[in-house]
Design brief:
heterodimer; A: 332 residues; alpha+beta; Aminopeptidase; Elongation Factor Tu (Ef-tu), domain 3; 2 domains; eight-stranded mixed β-sheet; 9 helices; 28% strand; globular; B: 339 residues; six-stranded antiparallel barrel; 17 strands
């Protein structure tokens, strides 16, 4: 189960360039579904036939945050622009990697005041001392992400891009395991979530689901002096009530709660004051789609060292499996 | 030149009629049919019966401007910005208001009367007003009403070899190029879309893309050329005179890779200079077209313009010709191919 997580977090996939992740996932799910396709925005959509006649869309996003090169100077330093929510304070002095494996360190100009630490003060150093040499490897428009790393320590996983390869791994794992879904399932590995839930927008339009569940990471409030938030690492699967982009459909929320209680799966409620998931886009598709989110609690989101708890991850997997096989879905 | 006429016309977002009428006049004999949709987009078709991918070409008709919000007791007009304005540039500018083009100037407290601290900050909208020379609210109300739109009476002008100045080049350059392109014949269906309300949230393009449901879309824009003093080279977004700018990604879109590569190939094959837009700030109609329905591969080609979103901008006519040539060659080469 954790093999998928390790495999997917190792892939390069900034928003808009999810092709490598698509291949990694396809490799795992081909043979387990009735149909598989990639749409025009790069969503990977796997269809698995079920008993009932509802269409259920499950969404996890493949893309990760990163940077795009905008300028190469004469000395061989590269300037860049953000892809998604990258924070200059986190980015400083990180190792970044390009699709071809080229590695670099983020440097920073002299700062008189730490408040001046803005993205435009940062540059990428790939170890070349001239523009000509850099241009043999890198062009304007090329993208880079945090250097890949994956560690299993105690009950915790520390890795890059758990947001949202953890969700992708849960969906792929579910597809490998599931025998008889209650209804038709559309496993959607979405593109461009980090830049505005774009893939989910077009995928939902194409599928026209009867209900949808996004699977994504969420923040926690359990670290020293953290912003108040009642989600704890290790306290179970987080059933989202609300975030900045969606209010979870009460029927979906209730179903998840009942299933967790009945099956002794540890869970917690989640209200996220910042951020959103693919549910934001799916719920507003066409005439509206009842949507919710199942969240994996995660610390240090959008850093190269995101952290999740293995037991939370397993609880999410169990709850997800119960959800898609549940007769309660008929009531929503 | 059509660009001159379009640049001189007034079309603040939501009031695009004047520009739309000029475009209709310019294209009506070239296209099979045209219509204005509910939001005000002008949609003109060519070759509907032809096979091949349906191509949507889009440029927005609207410009940023000011909306009159209140007429005070002294006959002075309060206003609100429509679209993203650089408010530092507003004070002491001439404006024209509404369909009747009532002239006025933007006034503020004289510098002698401003406190020292106030001089260091741009004057806020609350402290600016438009003076149309009316002596009272009654006199002003005869000429203007709240809700009227104001823009600048800037006249298009050639100031040097190939260099012209004018207002609203963002995006009258796109409108002019698409209108001129209607004279060409293509072997596949083309929809020329002149959109409304881009500057206030990409509103027109959304409906147009949904209705047309094209196979691919190309948006033609005016974009910032930031190759000016006090800006470091790595912060230039585009450079004047170096050709049309191709967007790789911006705040609203990741441009379809194959489509982008095809545009690059066309430029290189035909020796048309081009540059990349080297910032991801800003977004445009391509963003909403791209996520319409099940997704539409879209690209953006921009004309570098200095000082956009101000009363006067500046562009290079060679860039204009090169953009037009890139788009024309791309369409001919791509032959209605799907991406």
């Amino acid at each position: 189960m954790l093999e998928l997580l390790e495999k997917f977090t190792a892939g390069f996939g900034p928003a808009g360039e999810e092709m490598i992740i698509t291949e990694l996932i396809k490799d795992e799910i081909t043979g387990y579904c009735d149909e598989i396709k990639t749409d025009k925005l790069g969503n990977l959509i796997a269809y698995k036939k079920g008993k009932g006649n509802k269409k259920i869309m499950l969404a996890a996003h493949m893309d990760e945050i990163g940077i795009m090169i905008t300028h190469i100077d004469e000395e061989g330093f590269l300037r860049f622009t953000p892809i998604g929510g990258v924070n200059p304070r986190i980015l400083r002095h990180q190792k970044m990697v390009f699709a071809d494996g080229t590695l670099g360190t983020i440097g920073v100009e002299k700062l008189d005041d730490i408040k001046d630490l803005k993205l435009e003060k940062l540059f990428l150093d790939i170890g070349q001392d001239s523009k000509d040499k850099v241009e043999k490897q890198i062009s304007i428009g090329d993208t880079a992400v945090y250097q890949k790393n994956y560690y299993h320590t105690g009950d915790r996983i520390i890795a890059n891009s758990l947001d949202d390869r953890a969700g992708c791994a849960l969906l792929a794992g579910l597809l490998q395991e599931i025998k008889e879904p209650a209804h038709d399932l559309y496993f959607v590995f979405t593109s461009q979530e980090e830049v505005g839930t774009r893939g989910a927008t077009t995928a939902a339009f194409g599928i026209s689901p009867d209900l949808a569940l996004a699977v994504d990471v969420t923040d926690t409030g359990d670290t020293p002096e953290a912003r108040t938030m009642d989600v704890k690492l290790g306290a179970g699967a987080a059933i989202k009530i609300m975030d900045r982009g969606s209010i979870s459909h009460p029927g979906i929320r209730k179903t998840l709660e009942e299933l967790a209680q009945k099956n002794d799966i540890s869970y917690q409620h989640e209200v996220l004051e910042f951020g959103a998931t693919d549910a934001r886009a799916i719920q507003l598709s066409k005439e509206g789609v009842p949507s919710g989110t199942l969240s994996i609690p995660c610390r240090y989101i959008h850093s190269p060292a995101e952290m999740i708890d293995v037991n939370d991850y397993k609880s999410c997997a169990q709850l997800l499996e119960r959800f898609v096989t549940s007769e309660l879905l008929d009531e929503i | 030149m059509l660009l001159e006429k379009l640049s001189n016309a007034q079309a603040v977002a939501g009031r695009e009629k004047e520009v739309r009428d000029i475009i209709i006049e310019a294209i009506k004999d070239n296209v099979d049919d045209f219509r204005t949709d509910v939001t005000g987009n002008l949609i003109a078709s060519k070759g509907k019966e032809k096979s091949g991918a349906k191509v949507m070409l889009a440029a927005h008709m609207d410009e940023v401007g000011l909306m009159i919000s209140e007429i005070n007791g002294q006959g002075l007009l309060k206003f609100k910005p429509v679209g993203g304005f650089d408010k530092r540039v507003l004070v002491s500018k001439e404006v024209v208001i509404g369909q009747d083009k009532i002239p006025g100037i933007i006034g503020a407290k004289a510098i002698h009367l401003q406190k020292k601290a106030a001089r260091k900050k741009p004057i806020s909208y609350d402290n600016l007003y438009i003076d149309i020379g009316a002596k009272s609210d009654k006199e002003a109300e005869k000429l203007v009403s709240p809700g009227d739109m104001a823009t600048f009476p800037t006249k298009y002008n050639q100031i040097a070899d190939n260099i012209v100045t004018g207002k609203a080049f963002d995006d009258r350059v796109g409108c002019a190029i698409l209108a001129e392109l209607t004279a060409e014949d293509f072997s596949f269906p083309v929809e020329f879309v002149f959109t409304v309300q881009e500057e206030v949230g990409l509103r027109g393009a959304r409906q147009a893309a949904y209705a047309i449901n094209p196979d691919i879309a190309i948006v033609i824009e005016g974009t910032t050329a930031a190759d000016v003093p006090e800006n470091e080279e790595h912060r230039y977004s585009t450079t004047l005179g170096e050709g049309p700018a191709l967007t790789i990604r911006d705040r609203s879109i990741v441009v379809n890779k194959k489509l982008l590569q095809e545009l690059i190939n066309t430029a290189e094959k035909n020796n048309i200079p081009y540059q990349f837009r080297r910032t991801t700030a800003g977004g445009n109609d391509a963003g909403v077209i791209n996520i319409s329905r099940e997704g539409i591969p879209a690209a953006v080609i921009s004309l570098p313009c200095r000082y956009i979103h101000s009363p006067v901008s500046l562009l290079n006519l060679t860039d204009y010709q090169n953009l037009k040539s890139l788009l024309t060659n791309f369409l001919i080469d791509s032959q209605g191919k799907e991406f």
